[in-house]
């Protein structure tokens, strides 16, 4: 049997581009949807939504991660679509919660923006409301969509009655906003009564009927159109926790829940269970819901277990969206001379990231995404029969009194499994580079892009995980480079044909593995950055999971450079021999320097010495000496990659279009001027009875001329802008070859031996 | 008398073996003869006190931390006699002492300045102390015998008394030993009065009072023991017609005033009270409407109602958050601190607004876990990083105990040792940190493990213990910081409530019952101990209700007394017989100037209209106004960081600065508005007085103001200025003049 390897490591590499001292932009532009206004809609509603974004031209569609939300462009009076405005229809049975909105534009599908579907009526508030005198009146059971200006406090007023209970929440962090909301409930004069600055709900029960005020501001009074929020005001029942506005999921949530876990826990934690002698008796396996409440809460459970049993303990709380840090301690209750003593059996802390994440969070010596979690996943090995106690506590819970900090505790027999999440590879392109971009899967023709796929392995599962990406647009292929046994990182290389036509599809990634003799397939979640961040020291990148995986290819631009093997085939070589791969390049932009330093990545080939691919060279023969590389027989995928600085021109086709538009505008303006001149001249010649008519015609022509002049000025301005954008600028990015498959055959004698061994003995 | 011990046993010290030889040789020594009958001296009891009295082991001399002075090191005030013995007798190959010829010992030659000594002549040749040291060296430098009695206490005679003004009293200090023996150590003890304006204490224990009435304490130290001589100095004036008491505060203050014969001033008028209490609770001037409404209110309880309204207002929370955020070192050191600082300041402010019990407030800081945005008091751990800093700040801020000294040596005025210091540090030994995405910002969690900290002196780990409390066994899973918070909030805790009520008392009265307000110790007694106890008790019984602590203070008649002294009490500066006027704090003054002029100060990142008292951190101290009036930089837990003294720069700033001129001339400001208004001038002047002083102008003030407003104005060329411009200038002048009055600048 031929062993199959496919492994590519990209993320750990550090590319130091030669001319690092020069100012250069990081990454080729990707389309980003940045804001929608409003940021959500009620089930069954139809609303007009305005969008803004970056690198968006020719926006044709607004799409959502759920098909029950649809959008059409707003049609203007001229019968043409109004730029960046859509009418969004939410069906009555659209799922409540956060969906991803994206647009399709010249460069393809954009990065996502959260769009919430709810049950309450929604309003968009755009009036100034920065003082108590200007407070905007809002009604109970409504959601107000608004944008926070800088150095402002937004004021709202609402009627409330004694004896009723109101929940007030400002959704921001969980809907991709940059706002860190502060919500204050004040009396009618604006005097503060209750405050929340940590993203929670204000539970308001007024002492008297009257008008009350809600004030909203950013914690540090920042503001912009990116500081948007949804203020939810609703009357709630007298008991129970107030409902929460839905939130996007953190990357860590990709590993929760484990497959097959019921939505609701089988049992509940029962207080008091803080003290060891009041431990809640349980039997294993178990599935318990509890909460870290009140402050310094310790939940103690007691069970009996037998020697050699192995139990896996999983706690979710942070992955459920809470700011908690669960910790589990398991102790054996030993009795000696009638005295009970506790002996530590296991301390279970965090779910470690399989990759070393950025050590300080703002310069990338590791990925800026973290699939690990402060939650718990670990095993307990029982060494002798007896009674055991398991304590769950929140290491952040010493003084915090929040009943909403819930957790779920699962103790089970070994059930090997895995969860996977993927994201666009980020690498340090320059020493100290701190850029973090949300990278939509918007490919240019001839493009190649890489996703990093990470696995959280459960309950000791250590086998291979094969990766597959399907449902791609036409002209786009993906090669899954598996996560090898015992490792946690794999990759997917997505490439677009050079002649691909524009297309778009909702793709999916799965991981498959053989567990206990059965093939198991698990879906992969995709993660993105909420905002393009140029310098993570100034702005903390906010990664999250997305709800769908759209992939597009656009022919508006081609990739600045494509690398691929001269022949599309499986390359064969015998162990210990040499293989020469003619690597071809298509250069579509000028690059700086003299060559691009390339490396090979993939198990079996990562020891290949780096080579220099000369700039503008059409091909380069890469020699793989398997004797030096010591690559064993098997099937491999490898890719070559390097970092290059292109003289990138943004949307040069736009210049031609803008030039044509300008020419057209100029001729229209000239024609309008001519017409106005002519009609004005005719006024003097007109017979008295026709004078008024001629004057009206001349006036209309003059107006038309003014409009035409304005259009001409606008066209000139637009041309200047796109010309400026299209001027070549240094942009550094990762350049990847199409994956190459290589089969390493055993040496002849080895092959004969293998055949002999495999043959049935006579 | 060579030995003061009245019943000390002559014991055989190891150095006796040497003495046989020495005594023979010593006969050769020309200047010193002693007989074998003389009792053997004891280094701890006989020698160290001499060194202390001569200031050899003061912090400025040979007890300078870690280095000593010119290679010779002694422990501070002789708290470590064994180390001192090593340094004197054995260090430098024993060259400091010469038993064969004791008077030729370098130790004595230096002390007497016979050979050049940087510290000069510290010991007169021939003095009793000198003779004792000579004898001790002659005896072969005995240390002490294990069976020697230990010093257990010092006793003062008298320890408490009433003294007349400009009177003298000799103290007698008796050392008491473990075997019941006693010794008069008056000449060897050290004396220090806590208020030198009221009394001085001479080297030999003679206390002399000045002409100020009140209570003063003289700290007496001898060989690591401290005691206090408490003096009450009555004025002796008749105390009659006391206001009716409002609560226990008045009872205890008036009781003291009666005892010392200082008659209180009468209760202040309504306008003064309203302005005073609004400035003190809300950090702002009363509005014109508030002043008018209060004047018109005829309810008997109107003062109590205004106190309640002020305590319920967000202005109270803003003002006191300003105080606490500074003490909690909410300091901007880099641009990226903004989120942490805004969050922490807001948390303090919201806690005060919600009237979170003080013990809970402190608990949430001490035992904070998580990230700053999720749990803002974690920010305290961003500024105060090491366990040593943490315990020192906590001790000073929340316990009123300054532990800094005890890190390196026994506290000179207190009972705290290095053991106490590191026991307190042990509470912070299990603070876990993990880096976050923000540079320099960690998240904080409880790190499972045994809470203990290594005592740097003994190099042994010590368990956590509250000051004066037993060592605690903290389970590895339990956060010891929560137990520290528990200990603080115990009813019997002698520090926690007292330091808070004293701090707040000072806020309102300018002077603490103990000064400095965060230095509570036996040797620094309160001027009115019963009052401090009663306030602390009341605070504990109210479940650490901060608003109640304020309410009981400001609703007292004591707080409401006039600032005008009567014929007797002007000299009083510590018995609260009248209100002591306070210069407005920098932030309050800036807000008051804005309020008076109708200007608005713009602060970076904050909405227009944000008051200076609501500024979250020290980054706003770039404002010349705030700087010159002493806004602190939040670098210390001491309130003394706020500079409340007056300076020429302050006067010049108010009189001449472009900032203040700009405020006076603000378009749409008060001067502009009043100049344009059709109202009669008297009404407008009335408005200005209400805004500035919460009272209407007197007839004289009104006529002066009116005449100033109506004098014709000319420009520098002598041409008449247009009436509208002239009017605005006139109102600017009036506001300027009022702003520069003491009545405006002070809370009185």
Features:
heterodimer, A: 762 residues, mainly beta, 8-stranded mixed sheet, 7-stranded mixed sheet, 4 helices, 50 strands, 43% strand, disordered N terminus, B: 748 residues, alpha+beta, 4-stranded mixed sheet, 39% helix, globular
What does this structure look like?
The complex is a heterodimer of chains A (762) and B (748). Chain A is mainly beta and 762 residues long. Chain A is 12% helix and 43% strand. In chain A, the strands form ten sheets. In chain A, strands 31, 33, 34, 35, 36, 38, 39 and 40 form an eight-stranded mixed β-sheet that branches. In chain A, strands 1, 43, 45, 46, 48, 49 and 50 form a seven-stranded mixed β-sheet that branches. In chain A, strand 16 and strand 17 form a beta hairpin. Chain B is of the alpha+beta class and 748 residues long. Helix content of chain B is 39%, strand content 9%. The longest helix of chain B has 17 residues, at 723-739. Chains A and B meet through strand 17 of A and helix 11 and strand 12 of B.
Helical proportion of chain A, percent range: 10-25%
Which chain pair shows the most residues in contact? A-B, 41 and 43 residues
What are the segments of chain A in which pLDDT stays under 50 over at least 5 consecutive residues?
Answer: 1-22
Which strand order spans the largest sheet of chain B, edge to edge or round the barrel?
Answer: 2-10-9-6
How do you describe this structure in short?
The complex is a heterodimer of chains A (762) and B (748). Chain A is mainly beta and 762 residues long. In chain A, helix 2 packs antiparallel against helix 3.
Describe how the helices and strands are arranged:
The complex is a heterodimer of chains A (762) and B (748).
Chain A: E1 25-26, E2 32-37, E3 40-42, E4 46-54, E5 61-64, E6 69-75, E7 81-90, E8 97-105, E9 108-109, E10 113-118, E11 121-124, E12 136-137, E13 142-147, E14 154-160, E15 165-171, E16 181-186, E17 192-196, E18 202-204, E19 210-218, E20 228-236, E21 267-268, E22 280-281, E23 286-291, E24 298-305, E25 310-316, E26 326-336, E27 339-348, E28 376-381, E29 386-394, E30 406-413, E31 417-424, E32 441-445, E33 448-458, E34 466-470, E35 476-481, E36 489-496, E37 503-506, E38 508-515, E39 518-529, E40 543-545, E41 550-558, E42 561-565, E43 570-574, E44 578-587, E45 595-601, E46 611-614, E47 619-625, H1 626-629, E48 634-648, H2 652-685, H3 688-726, E49 729-736, E50 740-745, H4 748-758
Parallel strand pairs in A: 1-49, 3-10, 11-13, 12-14, 21-23, 22-24, 31-39, 32-41, 43-50
Antiparallel strand pairs in A: 2-4, 4-7, 5-8, 6-7, 8-9, 8-10, 13-20, 14-19, 15-18, 15-20, 16-17, 16-19, 23-30, 24-29, 25-28, 25-30, 26-27, 26-29, 31-33, 33-36, 34-38, 35-36, 37-41, 38-39, 39-40, 42-44, 44-47, 45-46, 45-48, 48-49, 48-50
Helix pairs in contact in A: 2-3
Chain B: H1 15-26, H2 43-53, H3 81-90, H4 106-111, H5 128-138, E1 151-157, E2 160-162, E3 168-170, E4 172-177, E5 182-184, E6 190-193, E7 199-201, E8 206-209, E9 214-222, E10 225-233, H6 248-260, H7 270-282, H8 288-296, H9 302-312, H10 314-327, H11 338-353, H12 358-366, H13 380-383, H14 387-399, H15 418-425, E11 431-435, E12 442-446, E13 453-454, E14 461-462, H16 480-488, H17 496-509, H18 529-541, H19 546-554, E15 582-583, H20 586-597, H21 624-628, H22 648-656, H23 658-664, H24 670-676, H25 681-693, H26 699-710, H27 723-739, H28 742-745, E16 746-747
Parallel strand pairs in B: 2-10
Antiparallel strand pairs in B: 1-4, 3-8, 4-5, 6-9, 7-8, 9-10, 11-12, 13-14, 15-16
Helix pairs in contact in B: 2-5, 6-18, 7-9, 9-19, 10-11, 12-16, 14-15, 17-18, 17-19, 22-23, 24-27, 25-26, 26-27
